[in-house]
Amino acid sequence: MAPTTEVPRRVEWNGKQVPVYPMQTVDFSAILSQEPAEIEKLLQCCKDEGFFYLDLNNVDGRRFIDDHQELLKLMHRFFESPLEVKNEYGLISPHLGYEPIGSRNGVLEHTRDGYEMVKVSRDEIQRESPTIPRNIKNSTDLKILENAISGNNIMSKAILAALSTAFGLTGASRFENLHRNHRPSTSTLSMMHYIPSNPAKDGNVGHQKHTDISSLTVLFTEQWGLQIRPPGTKEFGFVEPKKGQAIINVGDSLRFASGHVFQSCIHRVVPYNYEEHRYSVAYFLRAEDETMFQDSEGRYVTSRQWHDEKFMAFLASPADQANAPSSLLLGGMQEEETDVYGLPKSMPVVAAETAKNPAVEVAAVEVSA
């Protein structure tokens, strides 16, 4: 299957005409059945672009859509709580806890990020008494979180199994055997709330460009704002949210595990409707902590080492980030020219003040989508 060649339509954003990139759609039921044509489509998506829609509008996928709707209700209750209640939870580890607005750099120069996030790891939800924010720790909420984590894990493992088959992998070399459920990992469910913001004047804007630390990311979003820069393109463009479909992207670890055959698409989040609150959920499936990969610099690193190095790089100052190797910040993916939508602008007062007084300590931030 050839890469998508459809000419993208364009929409106006921030005073410019921005493309809306088309993406392939993979059917979840067909992946479960290991149907050869669908597996081949999946393989080519990962080789050519690193992003695709996963269609869940079928008997096998609808339960995951329902689970997401219940999770959205929980998220609203959590994020509408007073800040002091959310801060009680704090950041327990890079993949568990609460991260307030302005914790790291924003999507444009001289801005801080424009979202808050609460993270619950797969390892944590399985504990007899998991560490969860008190305002969402009743038995009903715990079940909602467990269903969401379990469902996303099932979807991502089904994709891994299909890719292993497509790659001709057998036994212990199969991708899913690097992600065994009983082994420690940093796999986590990240729930994000983006505040209304205007990129022309506000100091807290979006989510900076990155590739994901994960092997696979399962993203649920019903609102515009995600932008991607597919391999070989020269500008960021939007991804259209589609009803009943998750957005899947290949992360750094699976790219490394594939021998750098798979692509890991560079992406970011911007405010599309400047007046709306945006909510999204990303499940980051990550390899077992001790899994060894060869990164884009030829180094042999464990999954946990790569995770820890990368989130520290994303916490760095803009100057330090500019000096960091792109093989770390962007997972070794190359940009062909300067991002035409990230041009310098005057520094907002809010951003300047936030930069002087960052919201969280350096030891506790993770990259998300």
UniProtKB/TrEMBL annotation:
<keyword id="KW-0479">Metal-binding</keyword>
<dbReference type="InterPro" id="IPR050231">
    <property type="entry name" value="Iron_ascorbate_oxido_reductase"/>
</dbReference>
<feature type="domain" description="Fe2OG dioxygenase">
    <location>
        <begin position="184"/>
        <end position="287"/>
    </location>
</feature>
<dbReference type="InterPro" id="IPR044861">
    <property type="entry name" value="IPNS-like_FE2OG_OXY"/>
</dbReference>
<dbReference type="InterPro" id="IPR005123">
    <property type="entry name" value="Oxoglu/Fe-dep_dioxygenase_dom"/>
</dbReference>
<dbReference type="Pfam" id="PF14226">
    <property type="entry name" value="DIOX_N"/>
</dbReference>
<dbReference type="InterPro" id="IPR027443">
    <property type="entry name" value="IPNS-like_sf"/>
</dbReference>
<dbReference type="GO" id="GO:0046872">
    <property type="term" value="F:metal ion binding"/>
</dbReference>
<protein>
    <submittedName>
        <fullName>Clavaminate synthase-like protein</fullName>
    </submittedName>
</protein>
<dbReference type="Pfam" id="PF03171">
    <property type="entry name" value="2OG-FeII_Oxy"/>
</dbReference>
<keyword id="KW-0408">Iron</keyword>
<keyword id="KW-0560">Oxidoreductase</keyword>
<dbReference type="GO" id="GO:0044283">
    <property type="term" value="P:small molecule biosynthetic process"/>
</dbReference>
<comment type="similarity">
    <text>Belongs to the iron/ascorbate-dependent oxidoreductase family.</text>
</comment>
<dbReference type="GO" id="GO:0016491">
    <property type="term" value="F:oxidoreductase activity"/>
</dbReference>
<dbReference type="InterPro" id="IPR026992">
    <property type="entry name" value="DIOX_N"/>
</dbReference>
